[in-house]
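Lab notebook, bench 4. The sequencing result for the construct came back, and we need a structural model before the next group meeting so we can plan mutations. Quick request posted to the team channel:

Model the 3D structure of this chain.
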Amino acid sequence: MEPDPDRFESRRSTVYGQRGVVATSQPLAAQAGLSTMEDGGNAFDAAVATAAALNVVEPTSTGLGGDVFALYRTADGEVGAMRSCGHAPADATIDNVRQAVADDPETDADEPSEATMPDTGPHTVTVPGTARGWEVTAERFGEKSLSELLQPAIRYATEGYPVSELIAGAWSHAEELFTDDNAREAYLFDGESPDVGQTATLPRLGESLQQIADRGADVVYEGEIAEQIAEEVQSHGGFMTVDDLAEFEPEFPDPVSTTYNGTEVYELPPNNQGLIALEALNVAEEIGAGDNPLDSPERVHAFAEAMKVAFEDGHHYITDPEYEDHPPLGSKEWARDRAELIGDTANHDVTFGVPDANAEDADTVLLCTADDAGNVVAYINSRFAGFGSGLVAGDTGIALQNRGSSFSLDPDHPNSLAPGKRPFHTLIPALADFAPEGDREDWAAFGVMGGYMQPQGHLQVISNVVDYGLPLQAALDRPRWRYREDGSLAVEPQFDGHTAGKLVRKGHEVQTLPPSLFGGAQIVRSEDGTLSAATEPRKDGNAVGY
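Done. Here's the predicted structure in token form:
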């Protein structure tokens, strides 16, 4: 029977553990993280081991050719963020890319002035941050070496693993995306994507992982792998060089946060979209969105209108902070002013303000881990859209991301392309402190996948837990809504007709979309020493504990 990712009814329960918990989108990867903790690693070790395994067992959504981010709370109480996000090449000026796009016979641009940023291809490849992000996570916070943490991923890549249902479906897109022989040989089997349950091996990717295990992440940025990445991009007309790769380093920015009805929520600052989630929470609190009954259309309306305002602001202002400043989008004062735009009916004067239309339904992988020492980690790893740019670097098996498609070739756009600039980034892991004022320890790491669904999912999950006291699994299983780029309000099929009908009467253009477009989610919680975790059936997710 053909797997149907848009039909699900959850019968899961929240998972509990004494020593450690892991939640992610693929069972084999979750097991890799849990085994790492059973073998003496902590939650940070488990995060890296799980992320590396996902590169192999869910290559349709993540890979070494992408970026990685983290929000964490350490055992000694430090709350921090890690951003390992690559930049545009030094020669990737607007004029150079416009000319290159116009010279490409496969594009519609006859003149450089007509060129727009492509969705895929060499100009969408930014420096991949994943390898150095994994390495710095292990070195700063872990108990194990990066080499040890990569072993489950290497074993899956070289010895093989059975492909799970939803991943098999997503893998089929590679048949059209990959046109070069090296890409097709790395990810297709006799020219075809694998079937459900088929044993897949990725030996080229396994060899690259082994090189990183033996020689460290520098091999990706200064060694043989770096040379193949640069050569691959340049051979297709792009501008990436080994120097661009060599100068990259992860950073540890201060998280941004706000309180929502007594819970402190932490997000990543720009160039990530975390401030959109915080503004939406602040506006929702200001208008009392969480005071409405859980199943009421009034609740959906209030939260969706708060989200709409936050998107308009975030998509106008958020970019690489080294290039543009932004107003205090995450402040209570800003929210009070913006809340005045919200009434009992939909405000159609507020626009989505899209910085990148490709990001609306982009997908990724998220994992969350926690251990009995008090470490809590949200970790997110992606190459943006599926297999990314369509380029695979030489014989490395590393598919390169297309995050650069988020740039604009309009010099007046907030996310205009510039050498060394980082694009607007949708990826946002999150943390919540449910008891910021008391003596209790009650922390959660969480996230929702899927482009612009991410801040909307954060808003809904936090409300489900904070406003309505739902258990973790129930909080993830609740049917979701999402505000769309075209101004419509999408709801899952599980919404009843009464809710949808009343939202229409409030002026919303309501459409019902399949569950796969509302993002998978993961959450772990450390509550006074009790560990719990939840995931959901919108993906092949698994939550495990011991």
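The two ends are 34 Å apart (CA to CA).
Will bring this to the meeting.
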